[in-house]
Design brief:
Layout (H helix, E strand, L loop, with lengths): L13 E6 L2 E6 L9 H16 L5 E6 L22 H9 L5 E5 L2 E3 L1 H8 L2 E4 L4 E3 L13 H9 L1 H10 L3 E2 H7 L4 E2 L5 H12 L13 H4 L4 H9 L1 H4 L4 H14 L2 H16 L2 H15 L18 E4 L3 H12 L4 E4 L3 H20 L5 H9 L1 E4 L10 E4 L5 H14 L5 E4 L6 H6 L7 E6 L8 E5 L6 H13 L3 E5 L7 H18 L3 H11 L5 H8 L15 H7 L12 E3 L5 E3 L1 H13 L9 H21 L6 H12 L8 H8 L1 H11 L11 H9 L6
Parallel strand pairs: 2-3, 3-4, 4-6, 5-7, 6-9, 10-11, 10-13, 11-12, 13-14, 14-15, 16-17
Antiparallel strand pairs: 1-2, 7-8, 15-16, 18-19
The structure holds 3-hydroxybutanoyl-coenzyme A.
3-hydroxybutanoyl-coenzyme A (3HC) binds next to strand 5 and helix 3.
Length: 694
């Protein structure tokens, strides 16, 4: 067989060539073969060509590059739609009078999977993945996907795929009937052509839209069960519920009617605020990876071994990220007991993952095999990157960096996991400040996706590039931050916490403040978060020095969930209830400080806690601490669970209108902390009717 990839190219992203009596339709639309207008038109033309040519008896649709069609072209969303529309394209493919085979490698996603579903047959290499990630963009598959997928793969599988957006592998696709044949890697097109030849005379053509048995045998309780199982995960989101509704329609209506309803729901979601926020966030996340002001030709430094100082919760979690990615780690502790405890916990965490079926026992051993635990600081000498995760204190950090300065090899990157401290001051204390960078992981470090990469004044460009690239390699979402107290995320947390605590004295309860945040879509409110993280974090540890509510709680051992008591009381299953003790402490403090208590409205809580965060975000932007507003949004969605359907704090502020934010802050200014000040950027933008994110 000739190499069909030598096909002549045309100006259209779709080219065709014949192999025997099979027409091969090849898409070449980098980087991900998105289904742009030209691709859609090319597909229709190719099907017309196949039908018009009597010498063609079957068709294979496939793609060049890394992937099969990864979906509709998201950059076209929100613009006037161009013909031919995808639903018409897929219907045209299915209506072809000659068998059409989709040959899949990489990822068949969204509209890409809908194209595959409209083909009469689907073959794939084992590494291929299929999915309907539209829900992650606040959408549902809008080109027949919710109607064809349950008919082909079964209702339960379709529900899972559409409502969660998680892809499945080709082997799973084969098992559920989505894929008709698995084909050896690297041999896709010739075998797909062979398959097309095998089925060329089979009639009637198997059309996904006409398959009934999988939807007929569906148990109607599947929908409620599925929603119950996922209630927490879907809280606040519109799209998952619409996806479920659409799949349900497939079971109760003929295909054509279901497809019309699907389209209506798709358009409803597309024009809604949640999808706008989620589509914005898709690009925000990708933009965060781009570093501004980096000299051209900057190359990353090679990283073969990572050193981690400290085997506590943080050091252990950080190490696991590298081990999971196959990067050897030397982990150093001061005492054998702490070292054993730390490595033991890492193993336990891996084993817990394995027990949930998300890792095999071999993978656990493989990951742990990359770990070299030691008490010998000098063992860090052969590491290319060393991250310290020691006690959060400037003197302690400087001491560690001083020792590293003596033993680290030339060119090694020296990183601090500090969450607040000044990276410039740490860098200035050693002889190689250009090698110093902040790598701020969020706890639990093996789980949380966010990584703030802190660029010091002297950090070398290649050091920054390496840290960002490595972040991606260990499957984090890295965001560049400048040096300031708390960087992007924690700095914005501070004004929120201050106002939340002030509100307690003025008459709000912890439950009310937390409820407002949870209703907004946050996973938890400020006091639930304090209880989870530990009320004692940063406490001066003197029970006789009681200057605020937090000191009072710490003084009586109410350190949060770990002690069974904090802002709330906890039962043995860590379920919270409001605490009369805490209420009394709050009221006593209010009295002592002469604060008049009053009824606090939910709106005031929003304005004083969330609007102040926006103000701080604007300062972060005007000071150049964040490269762009969307980076702040990425930090808050991945680091603190800001609801992605609100895009992130800066996008949310834009959608509320910046004038409204300024009005709210003006209304509250007299009640807020005395050192509150407006961001000039926020005021200017509000006055000029501008936005942060566009
Ligand atoms: N449309 C337009 N651009 C897209 C795109 C799409 N569907 N998918 C990816 N891109 C762009 C990215 O923005 C990025 O651009 P950049 O280089 O300028 O930043 C570039 O392609 C590469 O993307 P990634 O950095 O994400 O590359 P990866 O290799 O890490 O991942 C991928 C590849 C798994 C395909 C991932 O890009 C992805 O998940 N894409 C989105 C898939 C998706 O959501 N499809 C559904 C679209 S909605 C739809 O189909 C509606 C239909 O039902 C009607």
């Amino acid at each position: 067989m000739t190499d069909v990839r030598d096909a002549p190219t045309t100006t259209s992203p779709i080219s065709t060539r014949k192999h025997g009596d099979v027409l091969i339709v090849l898409s070449n639309n980098p980087p991900v073969n998105a289904l742009s207008t030209a691709v859609r038109q090319g597909l229709v033309d190719a099907i017309e060509q196949a039908e018009a040519d009597d010498s063609v008896h079957a068709v294979v649709i496939t793609c060049e590059g890394n992937t099969f069609f990864a979906g509709a072209d998201i950059t076209e969303f929100g613009k006037p739609p161009q013909q031919p529309w995808l639903p018409a394209v897929v219907d045209r493919i299915e209506a072809c009078t000659k068998p059409v085979v989709a040959a899949i490698h990489g990822t068949a996603l969204g509209g890409g999977l809908e194209v595959a579903l409209s083909c009469h047959y689907r073959v794939a290499v084992p590494s291929a993945k299929m999915g309907t990630p539209e829900v992650k963009l606040g959408l549902l598959p809008g080109a027949g996907g919710t109607q064809r997928l349950p008919r082909v793969a079964g209702v339960r599988k379709a529900l899972e795929m559409c409502a969660t957006g998680n892809p499945i592998g080709a082997k799973e696709g084969f098992a559920c009937g989505l894929i008709d044949r698995l084909i050896e890697e690297d041999d896709l097109i010739p075998h797909a052509v062979g398959y097309a030849e095998e089925v060329r005379d089979v009639r009637p053509l198997p059309k996904s839209s006409e398959r009934e048995y999988k939807i007929n045998e569906c148990d109607p309780s599947v929908f409620d069960d599925f929603l119950k199982e996922n209630a927490r995960r879907f809280r606040g989101f519109e799209a998952p519920l619409k996806n479920v509704e659409a799949v349900k329609l497939a079971c109760s209506r003929p295909y054509a009617e279901g497809a019309i309803e699907e389209r209506k729901m798709f358009m409803e979601l597309m024009t809604g605020q949640q999808s706008a926020a989620q589509r914005y966030f898709f690009f925000a996340e990708r933009k965060a990876n781009k570093i501004e002001g980096l000299p051209e030709n900057t190359e990353p430094r090679p990283i073969h071994r990572v050193g981690v100082i400290g085997a506590g919760t943080m050091g252990g979690g950080i190490s696991m990220n590298f081990l999971s990615a196959g990067i050897p780690v030397t982990i150093v502790e001061m005492g054998q007991e702490a070292l054993d405890r730390g490595t033991g916990l890492m193993r336990k965490n891996y084993e817990a993952t394995a027990s949930k079926g998300r890792m095999t026992a071999e993978q656990v051993e493989k990951a742990m095999g990359y770990l070299q635990p030691t008490l010998d600081f000098a063992a860090l000498a052969d590491c290319d990157l060393i991250i310290e995760a020691v006690y959060e204190n400037m003197d302690v950090k400087k001491e560690v960096f001083g020792r590293l300065d003596k033993i680290a090899k030339p060119g090694a990157i020296l990183a601090s996991n500090t969450s607040y401290l000044n990276i410039n001051e740490i860098a200035a204390s050693i002889s190689r400040p250009a090698d110093v960078v902040g790598m701020h992981f969020f706890s639990p470090a093996n789980v949380m996706k966010l990584l703030e990469v802190v660029r010091g004044d002297k950090t070398a460009p290649d050091v920054l590039l390496t840290a960002m690239g490595l972040g991606k390699k260990i499957r984090k979402v890295p965001v560049v931050a400048g040096v300031c107290h708390g960087f992007i995320g924690n700095r914005m947390l501070m004004p929120r916490q201050i106002e939340a605590t002030k509100l307690l004295l003025e008459g709000a309860t912890p439950e009310q403040v937390d409820r407002v945040h949870v209703d907004f879509g946050m996973p938890m409110g400020p006091f639930q978060m304090a209880d989870l993280a530990g009320v004692d974090i940063g406490w001066h540890r003197d029970p006789n020095r009681v200057e605020n509510v937090r000191d009072a709680l710490c003084a009586i051992d109410r350190w949060g969930q770990k002690k069974g008591a904090g802002f709330y009381d906890y039962d043995e299953r860590r379920r919270p209830t409001p605490s009369p003790v805490v209420q009394q402490i709050i009221e006593d403090f209010a009295k002592k400080q002469g604060v008049e208590r009053r009824e606090i409205s939910d709106q005031e809580i929003v304005e004083r806690t969330l609007y102040t965060m926006i103000n701080e975000g604007a300062k972060i932007l005007e000071e150049g601490i964040a490269q762009r507003a969307s980076d702040i949004d990425v930090v808050w969605v991945y680091g603190y669970g800001w609801p992605v359907y609100r895009g992130g704090p800066m996008f949310w502020a834009d959608s509320e209108g910046l004038a409204k934010i300024v009005d709210g802050l003006n209304r509250q200014e007299a009640r807020m902390r005395s050192d509150f000040s407006f961001s000039k950027l926020l005021l200017n933008k509000a006055e000029n009717g501008e936005k942060f994110t566009s």
